[in-house]
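Note to self: keep these together.
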Amino acid sequence: MDCIHIIIGARWLLTQNKEITKMKIIKIELQTNNIQATEKFYTEVLELKGFDRKPETISFQAGHSILSFNESPFTNSKYHFAFNIPQNKLKEAIQWISPKTELIKNSDDSVTTRFEDWNAESIYFYDNNGNILEFISRFDLNNASDQTFDSTSILSVSEMGIVSDKPLVLAEELTKIKDLDYFVKGPKRKDFVAVGDEQGLLVISSPKRNWFPTNNPAEKHPLKISILVNDSIELLEFVH
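Structure:
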């Protein structure tokens, strides 16, 4: 039986953003068992600006998204999430980050993975918590940049992994949110499904299915996600 509960928060009307049928991940709230090591990784490796620092919490600005961690000393939470970067900057991103942390190789012994169905290419690496992070260039987005790659080239948190015993049932529940639908590029499988669009995706996996490109099984952990869908913000809370 799935122990995940979804709390769909109040809808706040936004009068200044009328981007139609677009989803954006505004904020994710995760757990860490070492807030100091997390602060060090995200400020020194990803060079993100930290703010709202408290003894047991810290937040980082990642483009238009906020990435927050709450310290839970006895947890071993591991998540998967992705950052959008400009479509023409993956090679520069590799040069920028590889001296600071090791990139994860796929089964072809390559650090880059091309997703033909999504018309995208990615690299993966771990943070200090063992979370699987991803830089993804989506070639159908009009976001090419002339700027040399640095932390300001991290445009947003564009994907958040969610784990459910019944991914398709959870996905159907999520589509009840105003204008939120299945990702048109797929997949829509019993063990894995995506909801949203290229600006913001909720990727839902069954437990024990490995997060690509690792052998790390997907695990359920507490998670909060604030998403912008058209003119309203929805708070999704996954509690275990």
